[in-house]
Write a structure and sequence with these properties.
Layout: E1 19-23, E2 32-46, E3 55-70, H1 76-87, E4 93-100, E5 106-116, E6 132-139, E7 144-147
Antiparallel strand pairs: 1-4, 2-3, 3-6, 4-5, 5-6, 5-7
């Protein structure tokens, strides 16, 4: 066998039950069904004399955060959003995403200065389905990776 590490150690693979999403105060946002954070990079292309290959250099990046929330009650987020639309002063939120390792290690990432971006569900109701609210945020500070998973 060439690969004796088996992709790290399959016993340490994590699933959604090992993750959690918190507000800035460390309070578990228990009704959040899922969350995703992504970064997209926008490079600038250029070509130089004597070289037929087009090159790129780093230019900008954007971090986005998406969460799906099960609607159980009207919580602080929707209340703050509705008030913000009335006053035309948008809120900024801070979040923490965690993933717990099998051995007690934890990956924790902090997302700061999150503002609503794109579409946010005010009401999304379908017969026979759990009522959920989709949120999309732009993250205006680079994420802060506070702790890492390990398999040791």
């Amino acid at each position: 066998m060439i690969n004796t590490r088996a992709a790290g150690d399959a016993r340490h693979a994590r699933t959604g039950k090992d993750g959690a999403f918190y507000n800035a105060d460390g309070v578990l946002l228990a009704t959040v069904e899922s969350f995703t954070s992504n970064v997209s990079f926008n490079n600038s292309s250029y070509a130089v004399l004597g070289n037929a290959q087009e090159l790129e250099t780093a230019n900008t990046f954007k971090v986005t955060l998406t969460m799906s929330q099960i609607v159980i009650e009207d919580d602080a987020f929707i209340q703050e959003l509705i008030e913000a639309m009335k006053t035309q002063t948008m809120p900024y939120w801070n979040f923490q995403g965690t993933l717990n390792g099998r051995n007690g290690s934890e990956q924790r990432m902090v997302y700061s200065e999150c503002v609503p971006s794109g579409q946010v569900d005010l009401q999304n109701i379908t017969t026979g389905d759990v009522v959920k609210r989709a949120w999309n945020f732009a993250v205006n500070q680079p994420p802060d990776l506070q702790s890492l998973l390990s398999i040791d």
